[in-house]
Amino acid sequence: MSLPADFHSWAHAQQSRIESTLQGVLPSPDIAPRRLHQAMRYAVLGGGKRVRPLLAFAAGELARADAGRVAIAGAAVEMIHAYSLTHDDLPCMDDDVLRRGRPTCHVEFDEATALLVGDALQSLAFQLVAEYRLADDPAVQLEMVKLLAAAAGSRGMAGGQAIDLEAVGKTLSVPELEFMHIHKTGALIRAATLLGARCGNSLDDRALGQLDNFAKCVGLAFQVVDDVLDAEASTATLGKTAGKDAQQDKATYVSVMGVAESRSLAGELRQEALKALEEFGDQALRLRQLADFIVLRKF
Question: What would the DSSP string read from start to end of 177-197?
Fold first, then answer.
């Protein structure tokens, strides 16, 4: 089966695949507890760029992985991401009312349900990684479980969110900001990329290291661009409340460096990411295109 020639056609095909996979693995809204299952599907389906699954698919193609395996790994990562957004939007965190162009989960349902949605999505993500065969070697699959757990936990995404909350109203240095976002945003992006690659078996440790370096740079670039867009784009364009970071006095790349320097940093990170892929040649085309999409996106 030949792949679509252009990036947008390829991305659309993979987004459709991950949407279908998520539809299938999420509990039916007709199964008790119905309200919780309805809220889980509300939080996950029908929105988002699906950047993390796209990275998993692109890395999986590089590693000659079975696309069905990658789809499950990508779905697990997307559930962790959706749970984090659901919790981040709660009044006790960022207190937001809009996500992906519609009311946040706790507004559409209620706070207690939104809290349980996050709990249930995180559990389901690990159930998927354990239930489906994602690697030929069981030891590799166990490493995949460990990788996702570390990326989601206190040394990864959750820890980054804790640092972010502690930094409200404070002035951070660029290294401190980078440390925060390597955890809050970057950890799950790196995990998505490496999980996609781990679904295949054609990459050695050195190649996986290069791929991780690529994902680290892309993860930071993603956050830099997010900060710029929060400062410059409209709520209608973003699908979430624009200017929220400034309103909450949060430390961002824009608040620390300004818009122009932030854009320049995103460009530098893109170049570093592309350099990490040089040894892979044409096989890394989709990863290169994703780096461009992440840095040059408008929403």
Answer: HHHHHHHHTHHHHHHHHHHHH
Q: pLDDT tens across 119-129, in order?
A: 999 999 999 99
Euclidean distance between CA atoms 234 and 229, whole angstroms: 8
Asked if residue 148 is part of any domain, the answer here is yes
Per-position DSSP letters for 184-249, written without gaps between them = HTHHHHHHHHHHHHHTSS---HHHHHHHHHHHHHHHHHHHHHHHHHHHHS-HHHHSS-TTHHHHTT
SS3 109: coil
The torsion defined by the Cα of 82, 175, 163 and 294, in degrees rounded to 10, comes to -10
CA-closest candidate to residue 100, choices 111, 88, 118, 113: 88
Number of domains in the chain: 1
Q: Residue 295 carries which side chain, given as an amino acid letter?
A: V
pLDDT tens column, 237-270:
677 776 677 777 888 999 999 999 999 999 999 9
Please state whether the peptide bond connecting residue 33 to the residue before it is cis, i.e. omega within 30 degrees of 0.
yes
Q: How far apart (Å, rounded) are the C-alpha atoms in residues 195 and 88?
A: 24
Q: Taking CA 108 as the corner, what is the angle to CA 107 and CA 112, rounded to the nearest 5 degrees?
A: 65
pTM greater than 0.85: yes
Does 276 map to a domain? yes
- Structural domain includes residue 1: no
User: Packing angle between helix 67-88 and helix 186-198, nearest 10 degrees?
Assistant: 160
Residues 229-239 pLDDT 10s: 988 877 766 77
Tell me how far CA of residue 67 lies from CA of 33, 62, 133, 279, in angstroms: 32, 11, 12, 23
Q: Which two tokens stand for residue 234?
A: 């409209």
255 located within any domain: yes
Domain that holds residue 11: 7-296
Q: What is the CATH number of the domain that holds 227?
A: 1.10.600.10
Position 3 scores a pLDDT of 53
Beta carbons of 212 and 76 less than 8 angstroms apart: no
